[in-house]
Write a structure and sequence with these properties.
heterodimer, A: 111 residues, mainly beta, seven-stranded mixed β-sheet, four-stranded antiparallel β-sheet, 0% helix, globular, B: six-stranded mixed β-sheet, five-stranded antiparallel β-sheet
Chain lengths: 111, 114
């Protein structure tokens, strides 16, 4: 039982490049989330998916797109990376009003 | 808009002390409150979840309380150990925020000195 897994663990991009962050959970949770964590700003929600087939914007969605591929997988795409997107990205999942479980994170550096 | 505050931002205590971490939130209409631990360079580990109808939850040396009416929660750590050194985050899930999304505080960085 792996919980929430994320790939890659670390990535360096040049400004304007694109990439997709992958997330998968094996807990049969309906809801999945993408957060970013920045020094002094805390964790902020980028996008979430309440259930398979639905996605909604969070607090800081600009510059990102998401896809809920199936119940297990929720990906985050940066179409044209900017230095302001340098951050640590966390994926999480939950079953309704229960605890959220987080993945190990992806560290992204945009030069 | 829900706001979560954690004070102090950093705390240093000698090993063996009991300690309390504080969390406050501005909107008392919450679904639940969750405490996390984050080690440097790592992800978040869920410690305790308190539903809005509950007053406290316990796990081992940890006890979390919730006073929804005053918008406060505390995390009590008994007999602290150097291995407890980490950043502790408080987060609340509120109505109006879709699908139980969390609003986080900025954390308290705890150092337990041997």
């Amino acid at each position: 039982n792996a919980g929430v897994t994320q790939t890659p663990k670390f990535q360096v991009l040049k400004t304007g490049q694109s990439m997709t962050l992958q997330c998968a959970q094996d807990m049969n949770h309906n809801s999945m989330y993408w957060y970013r964590q920045d020094p002094g700003m805390g964790l902020r929600l980028i996008y979430y998916s309440a259930s398979e087939g639905t996605t909604d914007k969070g607090e800081v969605p600009n510059g990102y797109n998401v896809s809920r591929l199936n119940k297990r997988e929720f990906s985050l795409r940066l179409e044209s990376a900017a230095p302001s997107q340098t951050s640590v990205y966390f994926c999480a999942s939950s079953g309704g009003a229960r605890a959220q479980y987080f993945g190990p994170g992806t560290r992204l550096l945009v030069l | 808009k829900q706001e979560v505050t954690q004070i102090p931002a950093a705390l240093s205590v000698p090993e063996g002390e009991n300690l309390v971490l504080n969390c406050s939130f501005t909107d008392s209409a919450i679904y639940n409150l969750q405490w996390f631990r984050q080690d440097p360079g790592k992800g978040l580990t869920s410690l305790l979840l308190i539903q809005s109808s509950q007053r406290e939850q316990t796990s081992g040396r940890l006890n979390a309380s919730l006073d929804k009416s005053s918008g406060r929660s505390t995390l009590y750590i008994a007999a602290s150990q150097p291995g407890d050194s980490a950043t502790y985050l408080c987060a609340v899930s509120s109505p109006g925020a879709g699908s139980y999304q969390l609003t986080f505080g900025k954390g308290t960085k705890l150092s337990v000195i041997p």
